Amino acid sequence: MKAKTVPSVCPHDCPSACALDVEMAAPDRVARIRGADMPYTAGVICAKVARYAELVHSDQRITTPLRRTGPKGSGQFEPVSWDEALDEAAAAYRAAAERFGAESVWAYHYGGTLGRVQQTASVRLRDALGWSRQLDTICGHIGGTGWKAGVGAMSGLDPREMAEADLIVAWGCNMVATQVGAMHWVTKAVRERGAKMVVIDPYRNPTAERADMHLRLRPGTDGALACAVMNVMLAEGLADRAFLAELTDFTPEVEAHLSSRTPAWAAAVTGLTEAEIVAFARLYGSTKRAFLRLGYGFTRQRNGAAAMHAVTALPAVSGAWRHPGGGAAFSAWKNFSFLKEEDVLEVAGVRTRSFDMSRLGAVLTGNPADLQGGPPVKAMLIMGTNPAVVAPDSLAVRQGLLRDDLFLAVHEQRMTETARYADIIFPATTMLEHDDLYVSYGHTFLQVGKAVMAPVGEARSNCWLTSQLAGGQPSFVRGGGVGGGRPSADGFGAARCGRGSRQALGRLLPTVRGHAFPERLRPFRQALPLRSRLGGDG
Question: Deepest of 37, 80, 223, 343, by most Cβ within 10 A of its Cβ?
Fold first, then answer.
């Protein structure tokens, strides 16, 4: 039989959200996965996803619901039917809610899939039933706070503009390994425009090996470097003062603050030489089509938000936002805000407590400050993440997961470290076995990925599982499910990010007002049509 090729989308927590072509050797067998001809990724995919068929057909897949038979963490389970597994989980969630209150149940989730329908399934269940909420702090929260302080929204440029840049700065990201789609546009700029590339990273990574300049600064000193670069631009006439006056909150106080952040001062902090700092500042300040591709790495520190804010000020000082190929990109998540993701309880005017997902260990071990005066967590549903090895303070996390008075259900594709602590394991589908809608935090394309094959074994999707737990089919869950009814299926649910510390950070660094970008930024077009105000684009 001739292989049939069907389209799909990569669901991984990665800015590329690559379009895929899946070759099917049979209706239930994947032969090969390759990159599809999509304008951003241009047929490129990473080696991991190219081998995704091995995961789909792995003998390690969980293909039936499982019930724990031995001590927690022992990995001893027996197969059970979906009816039995759903009944047991629903009864545990109901019992916890009735005895301790609905906030004693926590649906812990993250980016196992970035599909907007499947990823937010547990959020809709949580909000419909009044369970505790979650602050998604474990990845980009700190960096996002700094970006919003300097730019105003979690939106960004179309990264294909890197092909129009004369200078590309990869700051805190190893693009060769983690953003293969973006590297296509970097290479295009280098080949067609003779663009220069600078890498700012403590490590001599593969991206740095391809760069024209590598600033190997000390970890955690990025903010100092950014301030010194602004110092040089302001002192040597490389700042776009018209842009600063018209479109930012730059003040004499900010300039006075930056005047003390000299290259000599920054050299002592960063470990770079004064000559290296001045050379980069002059290169950046004199190149109007300078594109900053900002990563998450340099923000994962105590002063991460302040460091990100300092770096976002660079294109405001240089005026690079005026020019195609100039500006900065970090996360474009809110480019897709037209999807109008809303939390059910927030719309209803009801607020339950929100746990910091990075404090999972402290929550499960009963830290009073983390419990916020509410009941202890007595039941959990974990989807799309493996917190036993991902969450900070893993010893406390595992101590909490071992509690005999904690009911834990895990929805998973294979036996992860977290799944070993579960009372019930539900078998999960892969992206090739369910439908979903995919946005990207690295480009501007909205994509649909439909199932290309039936679920392996008895695996079921996130949405199917949460519907059953909420009483979608009472025959599956006696007593009408956890909530006794079906939650609304309209729209998408998503936990809101906490508000950024814009006021505190804004005192020291220039901030672009609102969405003050040229009209070429299509996601911002509804805000301020600035092309005529900004003049030329060269």
Answer: 223
